[in-house]
Amino acid sequence: MDVRPDDLSDAPPTRAGRARPRGRGYASGDARRTRILNIALQEFAENGYRGTSLARIAERAELTQAGLLHHFRSKQELLVAVLDLRDRMDMAHLDLAELPLGGAAVLAKFTELAGHNQAIPGLVQLFTVLTGEAVTTDHPAHGWARDRYALLRASVAASLEAGVASGELRADVDPTAVAAQVFAMMDGLQLQWLLDPEHVDMAALFGDYVEHLLRRIRA
Amino acid sequence: MDVRPDDLSDAPPTRAGRARPRGRGYASGDARRTRILNIALQEFAENGYRGTSLARIAERAELTQAGLLHHFRSKQELLVAVLDLRDRMDMAHLDLAELPLGGAAVLAKFTELAGHNQAIPGLVQLFTVLTGEAVTTDHPAHGWARDRYALLRASVAASLEAGVASGELRADVDPTAVAAQVFAMMDGLQLQWLLDPEHVDMAALFGDYVEHLLRRIRA
DNA sequence: GTCTATAAGTTGATAGAC
DNA sequence: GTCTATCAACTTATAGAC
């Protein structure tokens, strides 16, 4: 009993039947949660929030839709959990905490990020699709998207500000403006790249932009 | 008979009851179609394709959902009609046909467009939301979005090319790259602006970008 | 050209057994 | 923690009367 039909790719659940002793140190529940989260992330990336159904996620995670809703009480709660997960992964990768780095260093970091992103279209698509959807005021991710950009802009602006203060960057650069433009360029190129990867070399175009930008704002 | 409940904003349909003579020159059907298209455009902009229902559009157009499907045989056909409508309106406004204009002139035109767009958030949102959704490969607007960018890039690249040929622009500019970057900046700023209009001055930021870009690529 | 009626399916969420 | 069963609502689309 308790065997699911055909197994699907993702890491199978830690399901050891009833033989497993009931000690408290075993995080099987968390493993399940993590698995659901990863699948949900893929589905939201592939079809957006509105285009994704709980049934589909549940099927891929090899449990029923009701079982899924035991771990996340609503679809919206699941979305929030996915966004939180991604944000934490991203922050770790970007080391935004250890900013400000001074002007040139932050920008170099983003160039590097653009290159890295070209290898993970799925994750890039998650942000592009969800952020696009989230423009709608009543979308559950609206606040998340708005706050995320505000934070990113502020963070990069602070770095540029430090660069100006240290004399590395020209005194007449507008840190907030440049920060907004850097993210705009990144997102816009991601969009064109996702739509037409063969004709748009995201990393090269972004690198080129940053190179000229640096030439302009460096002291 | 044939009276609808409470009237909703948009131009009322040309519904003159049965007294109307049945001559062939009367475009009442077209007026209805146009009204539906305008409402559908608003709804798609507000909620995306997946988030919009035919019933809602029909209600606002003051007919039934089945009545709506007499004019457009499917939801997808309606979407295509909306996109075509917008494309035609846009082409008219941008005069892409009368390009190439030479480098500086095209870019000035886009700066102007950014300013104009700030007055029509609804239409900007239509593109942003639908293009984001359309990143998904199986989305009905996927091909439209990809082809639209390809066309826009080619068109602007041709203008820049002409600018290079005439000696107005430096010989070392990469027209295709610059074209992609200009649209990326435009779209990225639109996204941030739609999410947070109070903190992002789209037109100013885009104008600033173009200004510096011109300084760099002008001969 | 518009309607009513309905098909046929999906959705997110809940109740309660085990 | 997971299941079955079920709900009420909503979806797009079609058939056929007027």
Please give the alpha-carbon distance between the first and last residues of chain A: 71 Å
Number of strands of chain A: 0
CATH topology of the largest domain in chain A: Tetracycline Repressor, domain 2
Class of secondary structure makeup of chain A: mainly alpha
Task: Please report which band the strand proportion of chain A falls in: under 5%, 5-15%, 15-25%, 25-35%, 35-45% or over 45%.
Answer: under 5%
Low-pLDDT sequence parts of chain A = 1-9, 14-27
Could you say how many structural domains of chain A there are in total? Answer: 2
What can be said about the biggest beta sheet of chain A? none
Tally of DSSP helical segments of chain A: 9
Q: Cα-atom Rg of chain A, whole angstroms?
A: 21 Å
Question: What is the CATH class designation of the largest domain in chain A?
Answer: Mainly Alpha
Globular, elongated, flat, extended or rod-shaped: what is the shape of chain A? elongated
The CATH architecture term of the largest domain in chain A is Orthogonal Bundle
Summed over residues and divided by their number, the pLDDT of chain A gives a mean of 88
Query: Using CB atoms under 8 Å apart, which protein chain pair has the greatest interface?
Result: A-B, 44 and 44 residues
Sketch the topology of chain A as an H/E string, one letter per element: HHHHHHHHH
Question: Helical amount among residues of chain A, as a percent range?
Answer: 55-70%
What oligomerization state is this entry in? homodimer
Give a description of the structure.
Chain A is mainly α and 219 residues long. Chain A has two domains: 1-83, Arc Repressor Mutant, subunit A (Orthogonal Bundle); 95-217, Orthogonal Bundle (Tetracycline Repressor, domain 2). Chain A has helices spanning 28-47, 54-60, 65-71, 75-94, 103-117, 121-133, 142-165, 175-195, 202-217. In chain A, helix 1 packs across helix 4 (75-94), helix 2 (54-60) packs across helix 3 and helix 7 (142-165) crosses helix 8. Chain A is elongated. The termini of chain A are far apart. In chain A, 37% of the residues are buried. Residues 1-9 and 14-27 of chain A have low confidence and may be disordered. The interface between A and B is large, with 44 and 44 residues. The first copy, chain A, binds a DNA duplex (18 and 18 nucleotides) through helix 1 and helix 3.
